[in-house]
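Hey, weird one. I pasted the HTH araC/xylS-type domain-containing protein sequence into the form twice and got a warning about non-standard characters only the second time. First submission, copied straight from the form history:
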Amino acid sequence: MIKRKDGFSGERALVLPASIIHTMENNPLANALHITDIGYYPRAEHHFRKRETPISQYVFIYCVEGRGWFSVNDERYEIKSNQCFILPANVPHSYGADDTDPWTIYWIHFKGDLAEYYALRLLTPIDIKPTIYSRINGRLNLFEEIYHTLELGYSKENLLYSCSAFHHFLGTICYLQEYRNATVNDISNDLVDAAIHFMKENIGKKLSISEIAEHTGYSVSHFSTIFNHRTGHSPVNYFNLLKIQHACYLIDCTDIKINQVCHKIGIEDCYYFSRLFSKIMGMSPSKYRKHKKG
């Protein structure tokens, strides 16, 4: 079996310097919970990591697509799409992507006085499945905020904001139902609204029209007719509009490279992404980034 620790197309990763971690460990706010490493691996084929010598950080992994596994304390767990888990600190472990359907993961290494209390809730895999009340895309946007804040530099304000946002990020998972209930009154049970919400929650994936229709509980033909009548677009075209809308957000609000943006919206072919973006926005992604707005 091929095993690769890193080097994935579209990947992003930040490893905070030891001096910065030391600074956070000596700050009473940051020491409660702080990030040491953070990243994103799309379709991480042959991803594998084995640590026989334990590390002092907890390792959070959120699988949004594909499959993988992890092993700790002689127990092996299979991981599928829309699941997450935390590996305990100071314990040998290993993990990796499935050979045939490699995972796409968001990952964070973290420490702090409160780290153990968050980790205890996630030592075994938990499901974060898209539903009419889920807020998956909001959670992933929060991850991007944390990443982008740290990417901007290690000022005291940036570090403390990233720590505060990370509390919220873990809270959206540890208190999943409460996170969903917080905006439950803003979500309609209407068929079209439910379908659009489902699309947004799966913006980083490929969805077939049958998968979207199944989520609403209607046949493909009946669902498509209603959706077209209400929106003026086919479900597939509307999903592409949402993908490009999110791509614009990533281009406007982050420093993600153009060839990484396509992976974030579930398009593996960068050339197809550029053609689709240009068709919808009237300019290429790179020109859009330079275009003055506001």
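That's the output from the first submission. The warning seems to come from a hidden character in my clipboard, not from the data itself. The beta strands are 12-15, 34-41, 48-51, 58-65, 68-72, 75-79, 83-87, 93-97, 104-111, 126-127.
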